Amino acid sequence: MTMASAPGKIILFGEHAVVSGTAALGGAIDLRARAIVQSLPGRILIETDDLSLRGFSLDLSTGEIRSASAAYATRYVSAVLKELGARDVRVMIESDIPPAAGLGSSASIVVATVAALNGHLGLELSQKEIAALSYRIEKEVQKGRGSPMDTALATYGGYQRIADDNQRLDLPPLEMVVGYTRLPHDTFSLVEKVQLLKERYPDLVGPIFQAIGAISERAAPLIREQRLKDLGELMDINHGLLEALGVGSRELSELVYAARNTGGALGAKLTGAGGGGCMIALPGMAGKDALLVALRQARGMAFAAMMGCEGVRLE
Ligand code: PMV
User: SUPFAM superfamilies, alphabetically (predicted)?
Assistant: First the structure.
């Protein structure tokens, strides 16, 4: 048996604008997906024990499905198995990361599966090869959209600056509180919506993207020097710019305002593609507990997440 795990991620700054090439900043978090690979002669079996997909199982060799759930995780795992030409295996997926919430769940499943199969089949892929292969597979399943941020963070951990290329940033851990609207989002259509807005209003959306990129570039020194009040201010500005791009929602705004007004956050913004999914808040003087209470009172699912955690590893 070979087990590998990979972390989820939070985009701190730069979502959507990064699709057009400006900088974004993200960090790996201490929620992980695990892939467990075992030999299973004559068959290829995928089982997921994901938050929303508990008990799902797909037997690729017979096509037998043992649950009616539309299991997105199996699409990614099947793509990895196909890419690596893996047969005679059982792959089990467990995940702490809610799917379609902007926390990098699919990338961590892909990276953990690639790493576990790498160990099981003795492929000797380097970390760089795992990141590149995982990015290609995720992009293929997501039909060509997407930046390499999620797979890079799931592989390398820590923090990544993403622009034309990825750059690992050496920054201290940072505690965030995540508020989940409980509404899944569709990154593909939200990215398309923003890119169409840019085509219609290049003179308006272009400068918004530039401003978002500038925020991302300002963030790293603030984290390094622990200037958290300033960092929170940038989160608030970034959230406003994302609202201007049309990817906010009432549910996200309710959590953002609850965090700022009741939870004492130093700053709050949506994270990821928007629409539904998650927001993040930087704890203030009252600490993370006040934020957790405020977000739960506003009907969000809330949890603390440490940014800057370890990347993929064999367990
Ligand atoms: O899929 P999410 O919610 O993590 O959002 C991805 C971030 C975007 O910038 C909107 C798209 C991308 O691929 O960079």
Answer: GHMP Kinase, C-terminal domain (SSF55060), Ribosomal protein S5 domain 2-like (SSF54211)
% pLDDT > 90, the chain: 75
Looking at the domain 174-307, which fold is it?
Alpha-Beta Plaits (3.30.70)
Per-domain boundaries in the chain:
2-170, 174-307
Is the CB of 105 inside a 6 Å radius of any atom of ligand 1? no
Please tell me the predicted confidence (pLDDT) of residue 61.
Answer: 54
Verify whether ligand 1 is closer than 6 Å to residue 102 (CB atom): yes
Supply the ipTM of this predicted assembly.
0.96
Atom of ligand 1 minimally distant from the CA of 102? 3
Q: Which atom of ligand 1 is nearest to the CA of 19?
A: 14
Contact 113, 76 (CB under 8 A): yes
CATH 3.40.50.300 fits 2-170, yes or no: no
- pTM of the predicted model as reported, rounded to 2 decimal places: 0.89
Just list the catalytic residues.
Answer: 150
pLDDT tens by residue, 33-66 = 999 999 999 888 888 764 454 444 454 555 554 4
102 C-alpha to ligand 1 centroid (Å): 7
On the question of a common fold for 2-170 and 174-307, the answer reads no
Between the CA of 65 and the centroid of ligand 1 the distance, in Å, is 30
Other CB atoms within a 10 A radius of the CB of residue 33 amount to 30
24 labelled ligand-binding: no
Atom of ligand 1 nearest to the CA of 17: 9
Q: Quick count: other Cβ atoms within 10 Å of Cβ 201? A: 11
Sign of CA dihedral 267, 269, 272, 278: positive
CA distance linking residue 87 with residue 11, whole number of Å: 35
Give the chain's residues under pLDDT 70: 49-71, 144-147
